[in-house]
Amino acid sequence: MLRGLVFSTPRLLSRSKISHNYRASSSDMGSENLLSQSNKSVNLRLSNVSLYTAEVLEIEADDPKLHVLFVPGNPGVITFYKDFVQSLYEHLGGNASISAIGSAAQTKKNYDHGRLFSLDEQVEHKMDFIRQELQNTEVPIVLVGHSIGAYVALEMLKRSSEKVIYYIGLYPFLALIRPSVTQSIIGRVAASNIASTALSYIIASLGILPSKALRFLVSNSLGRSWSATAVEAACTHLSQYHVMRNVLFMTMTEFKQLKNTPDWAFMRENQSKIAFLFGVDDHWGPQELYEEISEQVPDVPLAIERHGHTHNFCCSEAGSAWVASHVAGLIKNKIPSLSK
Protein backbone atom coordinates (compact mmCIF):
# COMPACT_ATOMS: atom_id res chain seq x y z
CA MET A 1 0.00 0.00 0.00
CA LEU A 2 2.02 2.96 1.28
CA ARG A 3 5.36 1.67 0.08
CA GLY A 4 6.58 5.22 -0.41
CA LEU A 5 6.46 5.74 3.35
CA VAL A 6 9.01 3.15 3.95
CA PHE A 7 11.74 3.90 1.63
CA SER A 8 -19.99 10.46 -12.60
CA THR A 9 -18.39 7.60 -14.92
CA PRO A 10 -14.76 6.79 -14.43
CA ARG A 11 -12.49 7.14 -17.47
CA LEU A 12 -10.87 3.72 -17.82
CA LEU A 13 -8.85 1.61 -20.15
CA SER A 14 -10.88 -1.57 -19.77
CA ARG A 15 -10.79 -4.96 -21.43
CA SER A 16 -14.40 -5.79 -20.98
CA LYS A 17 -15.28 -3.44 21.30
CA ILE A 18 -13.52 -0.24 21.75
CA SER A 19 -14.92 2.09 19.24
CA HIS A 20 -14.82 5.59 17.84
CA ASN A 21 -16.86 7.15 15.06
CA TYR A 22 -15.40 8.89 12.02
CA ARG A 23 -17.11 10.81 9.24
CA ALA A 24 -15.45 11.21 5.86
CA SER A 25 -15.60 14.56 4.09
CA SER A 26 -17.90 14.93 1.11
CA SER A 27 -16.45 14.51 -2.38
CA ASP A 28 -17.56 16.14 -5.61
CA MET A 29 -19.02 12.87 -6.94
CA GLY A 30 -22.65 13.31 -5.99
CA SER A 31 -21.97 12.68 -2.33
CA GLU A 32 -24.87 14.82 -1.13
CA ASN A 33 -27.32 12.45 -2.84
CA LEU A 34 -25.41 9.43 -1.56
CA LEU A 35 -25.42 10.74 1.99
CA SER A 36 -29.17 11.22 1.87
CA GLN A 37 -29.47 7.49 1.19
CA SER A 38 -26.95 6.21 3.74
CA ASN A 39 -25.84 8.57 6.48
CA LYS A 40 -24.01 6.15 8.78
CA SER A 41 -20.43 6.72 9.88
CA VAL A 42 -17.43 4.42 9.96
CA ASN A 43 -16.85 2.70 13.28
CA LEU A 44 -13.33 1.76 14.48
CA ARG A 45 -13.01 -1.11 16.94
CA LEU A 46 -10.60 -3.78 18.11
CA SER A 47 -11.05 -7.41 17.16
CA ASN A 48 -9.32 -10.29 18.95
CA VAL A 49 -8.90 -12.95 16.29
CA SER A 50 -7.16 -16.18 17.40
CA LEU A 51 -5.76 -14.30 20.42
CA TYR A 52 -4.23 -11.58 18.22
CA THR A 53 -5.49 -8.02 18.04
CA ALA A 54 -6.38 -6.10 14.90
CA GLU A 55 -8.15 -2.83 14.23
CA VAL A 56 -11.36 -3.04 12.21
CA LEU A 57 -13.26 -0.32 10.38
CA GLU A 58 -16.87 -1.19 9.78
CA ILE A 59 -20.31 0.03 8.84
CA GLU A 60 -23.30 -2.24 9.36
CA ALA A 61 -26.21 -1.81 6.97
CA ASP A 62 -29.72 -2.04 8.38
CA ASP A 63 -30.79 -4.64 5.83
CA PRO A 64 -27.61 -5.79 4.05
CA LYS A 65 -27.72 -7.64 0.75
CA LEU A 66 -24.02 -8.53 0.96
CA HIS A 67 -20.93 -8.09 3.15
CA VAL A 68 -17.75 -6.52 1.79
CA LEU A 69 -14.53 -7.60 3.51
CA PHE A 70 -11.57 -5.34 2.72
CA VAL A 71 -7.88 -6.26 3.19
CA PRO A 72 -5.28 -3.43 3.22
CA GLY A 73 -1.80 -3.30 1.78
CA ASN A 74 1.40 -2.96 3.77
CA PRO A 75 1.49 -0.99 6.03
CA GLY A 76 -1.77 -2.61 7.07
CA VAL A 77 -2.83 0.37 9.18
CA ILE A 78 -6.54 0.27 8.51
CA THR A 79 -7.28 3.87 9.51
CA PHE A 80 -5.65 4.99 6.24
CA TYR A 81 -8.81 3.63 4.58
CA LYS A 82 -11.51 5.45 6.57
CA ASP A 83 -12.47 7.73 3.68
CA PHE A 84 -12.52 4.80 1.24
CA VAL A 85 -14.75 2.65 3.47
CA GLN A 86 -17.17 5.51 4.06
CA SER A 87 -17.36 6.34 0.36
CA LEU A 88 -17.81 2.70 -0.66
CA TYR A 89 -20.71 2.30 1.76
CA GLU A 90 -22.36 5.39 0.31
CA HIS A 91 -21.81 4.34 -3.31
CA LEU A 92 -23.44 1.00 -2.50
CA GLY A 93 -26.47 2.91 -1.27
CA GLY A 94 -26.30 1.56 2.27
CA ASN A 95 -27.16 -1.92 0.99
CA ALA A 96 -23.92 -3.61 2.07
CA SER A 97 -22.20 -4.00 5.42
CA ILE A 98 -18.45 -3.39 5.23
CA SER A 99 -15.61 -4.69 7.38
CA ALA A 100 -12.03 -3.56 6.76
CA ILE A 101 -9.57 -5.50 8.91
CA GLY A 102 -6.06 -4.22 9.50
CA SER A 103 -2.91 -6.31 9.71
CA ALA A 104 -2.29 -8.14 12.95
CA ALA A 105 0.12 -6.21 15.24
CA GLN A 106 -0.04 -3.06 13.08
CA THR A 107 -2.17 -1.37 15.69
CA LYS A 108 -1.87 1.90 17.59
CA LYS A 109 -0.93 0.08 20.79
CA ASN A 110 1.43 -2.90 21.08
CA TYR A 111 -1.26 -5.40 22.04
CA ASP A 112 0.70 -8.42 20.78
CA HIS A 113 3.91 -7.51 22.61
CA GLY A 114 6.20 -7.23 19.61
CA ARG A 115 5.21 -10.45 17.86
CA LEU A 116 6.10 -10.40 14.14
CA PHE A 117 3.65 -11.70 11.55
CA SER A 118 4.65 -13.12 8.16
CA LEU A 119 2.61 -12.80 4.98
CA ASP A 120 1.24 -16.35 5.38
CA GLU A 121 0.29 -15.62 8.99
CA GLN A 122 -1.55 -12.48 7.92
CA VAL A 123 -3.51 -14.59 5.41
CA GLU A 124 -4.44 -17.06 8.13
CA HIS A 125 -5.36 -14.20 10.46
CA LYS A 126 -7.86 -12.89 7.89
CA MET A 127 -9.29 -16.38 7.39
CA ASP A 128 -9.74 -16.64 11.15
CA PHE A 129 -11.64 -13.34 11.03
CA ILE A 130 -14.09 -14.85 8.53
CA ARG A 131 -14.48 -17.98 10.66
CA GLN A 132 -14.91 -16.00 13.87
CA GLU A 133 -16.95 -12.98 12.84
CA LEU A 134 -18.59 -13.73 9.48
CA GLN A 135 -19.37 -17.42 9.84
CA ASN A 136 -23.05 -16.81 10.56
CA THR A 137 -23.64 -14.04 8.05
CA GLU A 138 -26.61 -14.86 5.83
CA VAL A 139 -25.53 -12.70 2.88
CA PRO A 140 -22.85 -13.25 0.22
CA ILE A 141 -19.31 -12.00 0.89
CA VAL A 142 -17.22 -9.90 -1.50
CA LEU A 143 -13.44 -9.72 -0.93
CA VAL A 144 -11.57 -6.53 -1.87
CA GLY A 145 -7.80 -6.24 -1.44
CA HIS A 146 -5.27 -3.47 -2.07
CA SER A 147 -1.62 -3.98 -3.06
CA ILE A 148 -0.30 -7.00 -1.12
CA GLY A 149 -3.82 -7.16 0.32
CA ALA A 150 -4.91 -8.20 -3.20
CA TYR A 151 -2.61 -11.22 -2.83
CA VAL A 152 -3.96 -11.95 0.66
CA ALA A 153 -7.57 -11.70 -0.51
CA LEU A 154 -6.86 -13.95 -3.50
CA GLU A 155 -5.43 -16.57 -1.14
CA MET A 156 -8.56 -16.18 0.99
CA LEU A 157 -10.72 -16.79 -2.08
CA LYS A 158 -8.96 -20.15 -2.51
CA ARG A 159 -9.80 -21.19 1.03
CA SER A 160 -13.26 -19.67 1.40
CA SER A 161 -16.67 -21.22 1.25
CA GLU A 162 -19.28 -20.64 -1.43
CA LYS A 163 -20.39 -17.56 0.49
CA VAL A 164 -17.52 -15.62 -1.10
CA ILE A 165 -18.94 -14.78 -4.52
CA TYR A 166 -16.55 -12.10 -5.83
CA TYR A 167 -13.00 -10.75 -5.50
CA ILE A 168 -11.58 -7.36 -6.55
CA GLY A 169 -7.84 -6.64 -6.53
CA LEU A 170 -6.86 -2.95 -6.40
CA TYR A 171 -3.39 -1.93 -7.66
CA PRO A 172 -2.40 -5.57 -7.03
CA PHE A 173 1.04 -6.67 -5.85
CA LEU A 174 0.97 -10.33 -6.86
CA ALA A 175 4.51 -11.09 -8.07
CA LEU A 176 8.06 -9.79 -8.39
CA ILE A 177 8.10 -9.35 -12.15
CA ARG A 178 10.66 -6.80 -13.27
CA PRO A 179 13.90 -5.35 -11.90
CA SER A 180 13.14 -2.33 -9.74
CA VAL A 181 15.62 -0.13 -7.90
CA THR A 182 12.94 0.74 -5.33
CA GLN A 183 12.03 -2.89 -4.70
CA SER A 184 15.70 -3.86 -4.54
CA ILE A 185 16.47 -1.26 -1.86
CA ILE A 186 13.38 -2.09 0.19
CA GLY A 187 14.06 -5.80 -0.15
CA ARG A 188 17.63 -5.48 1.13
CA VAL A 189 16.59 -3.37 4.11
CA ALA A 190 13.72 -5.70 5.01
CA ALA A 191 15.94 -8.79 4.72
CA SER A 192 18.50 -7.38 7.16
CA ASN A 193 17.49 -7.71 10.80
CA ILE A 194 20.00 -5.01 11.77
CA ALA A 195 18.86 -2.56 9.09
CA SER A 196 15.13 -3.08 9.68
CA THR A 197 15.55 -2.79 13.45
CA ALA A 198 17.59 0.40 13.10
CA LEU A 199 15.14 1.94 10.64
CA SER A 200 12.21 1.08 12.88
CA TYR A 201 13.90 2.77 15.84
CA ILE A 202 14.73 5.86 13.75
CA ILE A 203 11.14 6.24 12.55
CA ALA A 204 9.73 5.48 16.00
CA SER A 205 11.94 8.21 17.48
CA LEU A 206 9.74 10.73 15.70
CA GLY A 207 7.00 9.72 18.12
CA ILE A 208 8.69 11.70 20.89
CA LEU A 209 7.85 14.92 19.04
CA PRO A 210 4.82 16.90 20.20
CA SER A 211 1.77 15.84 18.19
CA LYS A 212 1.49 19.19 16.41
CA ALA A 213 5.14 19.07 15.39
CA LEU A 214 4.82 15.50 14.12
CA ARG A 215 1.73 16.36 12.08
CA PHE A 216 3.51 19.38 10.63
CA LEU A 217 6.50 17.21 9.69
CA VAL A 218 4.37 14.53 8.00
CA SER A 219 2.12 17.08 6.28
CA ASN A 220 5.08 18.92 4.79
CA SER A 221 7.14 15.91 3.73
CA LEU A 222 5.44 12.60 2.96
CA GLY A 223 1.91 13.94 3.17
CA ARG A 224 1.90 17.14 1.12
CA SER A 225 -1.08 15.96 -0.91
CA TRP A 226 -2.55 13.72 1.77
CA SER A 227 -5.89 14.02 3.46
CA ALA A 228 -6.12 14.79 7.17
CA THR A 229 -7.21 11.17 7.64
CA ALA A 230 -3.97 9.82 6.12
CA VAL A 231 -1.75 12.24 8.04
CA GLU A 232 -3.42 11.24 11.30
CA ALA A 233 -2.98 7.52 10.53
CA ALA A 234 0.70 8.01 9.79
CA CYS A 235 1.29 10.01 12.97
CA THR A 236 -0.53 7.65 15.32
CA HIS A 237 0.69 4.33 13.91
CA LEU A 238 3.84 4.56 11.83
CA SER A 239 5.70 6.31 14.64
CA GLN A 240 5.31 3.12 16.70
CA TYR A 241 8.30 0.75 16.73
CA HIS A 242 6.20 -2.44 16.77
CA VAL A 243 4.27 -1.27 13.70
CA MET A 244 7.35 -0.50 11.61
CA ARG A 245 9.05 -3.78 12.60
CA ASN A 246 5.95 -5.66 11.47
CA VAL A 247 5.76 -3.66 8.23
CA LEU A 248 9.36 -4.57 7.39
CA PHE A 249 9.11 -8.19 8.55
CA MET A 250 5.99 -8.71 6.46
CA THR A 251 7.78 -7.07 3.52
CA MET A 252 10.66 -9.53 3.84
CA THR A 253 8.26 -12.48 3.68
CA GLU A 254 6.37 -10.91 0.77
CA PHE A 255 9.54 -10.72 -1.31
CA LYS A 256 10.24 -14.39 -0.62
CA GLN A 257 6.70 -15.55 -1.35
CA LEU A 258 6.10 -13.44 -4.45
CA LYS A 259 9.08 -14.88 -6.27
CA ASN A 260 6.69 -17.72 -7.08
CA THR A 261 4.51 -17.63 -10.19
CA PRO A 262 0.89 -16.58 -9.55
CA ASP A 263 -1.61 -19.42 -9.52
CA TRP A 264 -2.91 -18.97 -13.06
CA ALA A 265 -4.82 -22.25 -13.00
CA PHE A 266 -6.89 -21.11 -10.02
CA MET A 267 -7.59 -17.75 -11.66
CA ARG A 268 -8.73 -19.42 -14.88
CA GLU A 269 -11.04 -21.73 -12.94
CA ASN A 270 -12.56 -18.77 -11.04
CA GLN A 271 -12.34 -15.97 -13.60
CA SER A 272 -16.04 -15.20 -13.28
CA LYS A 273 -15.39 -14.25 -9.64
CA ILE A 274 -12.33 -12.04 -10.21
CA ALA A 275 -11.63 -8.45 -11.33
CA PHE A 276 -8.58 -6.16 -11.12
CA LEU A 277 -7.89 -2.42 -11.15
CA PHE A 278 -4.37 -1.31 -12.12
CA GLY A 279 -2.69 2.08 -11.95
CA VAL A 280 -0.44 3.91 -14.40
CA ASP A 281 3.32 3.51 -13.84
CA ASP A 282 2.82 1.44 -10.69
CA HIS A 283 5.91 -0.64 -9.98
CA TRP A 284 4.02 -2.78 -7.43
CA GLY A 285 1.31 -3.69 -9.94
CA PRO A 286 3.15 -2.98 -13.21
CA GLN A 287 2.03 -3.07 -16.82
CA GLU A 288 3.82 -6.41 -17.18
CA LEU A 289 1.45 -7.98 -14.66
CA TYR A 290 -1.56 -6.48 -16.43
CA GLU A 291 -0.37 -7.99 -19.71
CA GLU A 292 0.44 -11.34 -18.16
CA ILE A 293 -3.02 -11.62 -16.58
CA SER A 294 -4.52 -10.66 -19.96
CA GLU A 295 -2.60 -13.51 -21.57
CA GLN A 296 -2.99 -16.14 -18.86
CA VAL A 297 -6.59 -15.38 -17.82
CA PRO A 298 -8.08 -13.62 -20.86
CA ASP A 299 -11.65 -13.35 -19.54
CA VAL A 300 -10.84 -11.64 -16.23
CA PRO A 301 -12.08 -8.00 -16.26
CA LEU A 302 -9.13 -5.59 -16.09
CA ALA A 303 -9.09 -1.80 -15.91
CA ILE A 304 -6.42 0.88 -15.65
CA GLU A 305 -7.11 4.02 -13.59
CA ARG A 306 -5.85 7.10 -15.44
CA HIS A 307 -6.85 9.90 -13.07
CA GLY A 308 -3.51 10.11 -11.31
CA HIS A 309 -4.59 8.78 -7.92
CA THR A 310 -1.58 6.41 -7.78
CA HIS A 311 -0.95 3.24 -5.81
CA ASN A 312 -1.60 5.09 -2.53
CA PHE A 313 -5.12 6.13 -3.51
CA CYS A 314 -6.37 5.97 0.08
CA CYS A 315 -4.16 8.88 1.13
CA SER A 316 -6.42 11.42 -0.57
CA GLU A 317 -10.15 12.03 -0.41
CA ALA A 318 -10.38 12.21 -4.20
CA GLY A 319 -8.52 8.93 -4.65
CA SER A 320 -10.61 7.19 -2.01
CA ALA A 321 -13.85 8.42 -3.59
CA TRP A 322 -12.84 7.48 -7.15
CA VAL A 323 -11.72 3.96 -6.28
CA ALA A 324 -14.79 3.44 -4.10
CA SER A 325 -16.99 4.44 -7.04
CA HIS A 326 -15.17 1.99 -9.32
CA VAL A 327 -15.42 -0.86 -6.81
CA ALA A 328 -19.11 -0.16 -6.24
CA GLY A 329 -19.69 -0.24 -10.00
CA LEU A 330 -18.04 -3.66 -10.30
CA ILE A 331 -20.09 -5.02 -7.38
CA LYS A 332 -23.36 -3.67 -8.79
CA ASN A 333 -22.59 -5.25 -12.17
CA LYS A 334 -22.01 -8.54 -10.36
CA ILE A 335 -25.10 -8.18 -8.14
CA PRO A 336 -27.67 -6.13 -10.12
CA SER A 337 -30.16 -6.21 -7.24
CA LEU A 338 -27.99 -3.71 -5.34
CA SER A 339 -28.93 -1.02 -7.88
CA LYS A 340 -32.64 -1.38 -7.18
Describe, in plain words, how this protein is organized in 3D.
This protein is globular. Helix 4 (119-133) packs across helix 5 and helix 8 (211-219) crosses helix 9 (228-238). The protein is an alpha/beta fold. The protein is built from 13 helices and ten strands. The protein starts with a helix and ends in a 6-residue tail after the last helix. Strands 1-10-9-8-7-5-6-4-3-2 form a ten-stranded mixed beta sheet, sandwiched between helices. It has one domain (3-181, 259-339): Alpha/Beta hydrolase fold, catalytic domain (Rossmann fold). Helix content is 42%, strand content 17%.
Radius of gyration: 19 Å
Q: How many domains is the backbone divided into?
A: 1
Tell me the structural class: alpha/beta
Widest β-sheet, arrangement of strands? 1-10-9-8-7-5-6-4-3-2
What is the CATH domain class?
A: Alpha Beta
| Strand-residue proportion | 15-25%
Kindly state the number of beta strands: 10
Helix content range of the residues, please?
A: 40-55%
Number of helices: 13
* Parts with pLDDT < 50 across at least 5 consecutive residues: 4-36
Q: Name the CATH homologous superfamily.
A: Alpha/Beta hydrolase fold, catalytic domain
- Characterize the main sheet: 10 strands, mixed
CATH structural architecture? 3-Layer(aba) Sandwich
Shape: globular
SSE sequence, one letter per element: HEEHEEEHEHEHEHHHHHHEHEH
The first-to-last residue Cα distance is 33 Å
By CATH, the topology is Rossmann fold
- Provide the residue-averaged pLDDT: 88
